[in-house]
Amino acid sequence: GNDGPWSTFNVNIGTPPQQMRLLPATSESATIVVYQGSGCNSSCPANWEDLRGGTFQPSSDISWKQQEYSATDPYFYVPFDTEAALGPYSFLAAYVGLDTLKLDWSGAHTPSGGSGILDQVVGAYEAQFPWLGLLGISGRPSHLKGVNTAENSPLLTLVSNGSVKSNFWAYTAGAQYNNPSVDGSLTFGGYDANRGTVDASSGALVVPMNSQDTSRELQLAIQSITVSGSPGQIAGLPLTVVLDSTVPEIWLPNAIAESIADVLGLVWNDTYSVYFINSTQDNALSSSHPSVGFLLAANVSVSGQTTITLPYAALSRTAHYPLYGIASNTTSLKYLGIKRTGNDTAHSQCYLGRTFFQEAYVTADYNRSQFTVSPAQHQQATNIIAVDPPGGSGSGLSGGAIAGIVVGAIAAIGIVA
Which domains does the chain possess? Predict the structure, then answer.
């Protein structure tokens, strides 16, 4: 990505399959991809389509079922609830259709016997934001034409066709900065016990989903923040935030973000709304190895239970064209993966985004309306555990066999039955 690097996941769309590399989006139910006809000016790199994870052309797809908002408007406006809270990107104009997904680079092996995941909502957009497409992993349906209609998400379809037992996903973004680097991990129907835990007694925070607002269903609290090398804790807490991998950064109120940046010796750039990191600062911080620890709780009224610690390497991100005024793909800028919300009271804008998911292992159990957060374990070997729905065997966890580990060139998606 142009704000990463990130682990992408391989998804084939349509017939014949068009290969895409997508980022998991915890708050999205649809699959959102870059349209092949997207315009690009002379400053774009020659390989811009590959840099964007591949592009999609509906007219080359015989399984594409075009959906239109109205007889006069071919676009749907895909909502970005999280981005709407953060800035100008409240929706994404896209050509939308129903199509087949295969969670496999070759398109030949799927958990449903080769037919793929049918009738999935796919939106093809022309904008430069987001730079990479998104694979919606939510366990809730899309509503293309209002609440009276519903289209199953990929996870819901896997549940309904028997490919997985439970409406459950598990995700960590991986640690490209680790030595050796560790890819992201995404599992449907279970979790990877080598990447994290779902058990409170083993260090996981178990939180009820926010049933009042499904756009903020992964809502929890930060009870305290500590920065290594700083005396005491950051002021202005506790704070209610939302976990959402759709958002690249961590968004915090001005005063809290400034307190963290002050310890790191970084200054906010008003022009581009970012904390840039110059080479001198980067060398010093890379040598001193500071870290930022987030003590999490289910809500602001209870004590913290689980700490997720991000080393400087996780917070130091690299921006490429066309972010922050960068005009050429040969130029890059370092920046801090923490942003300011704009004021100290806009708590609806506070998110723990994909940057946070590098050191957090998050699971969502829609059958039990709860999610868990635990420190991510950076292991490449897998230990996939299937999760039974309520009424299944035992406590809800089973040692079910792996129905399919769908291996791609970048990262793997685990599907367990």
Answer: 9-161 (2.40.70.10), 168-386 (2.40.70.10)
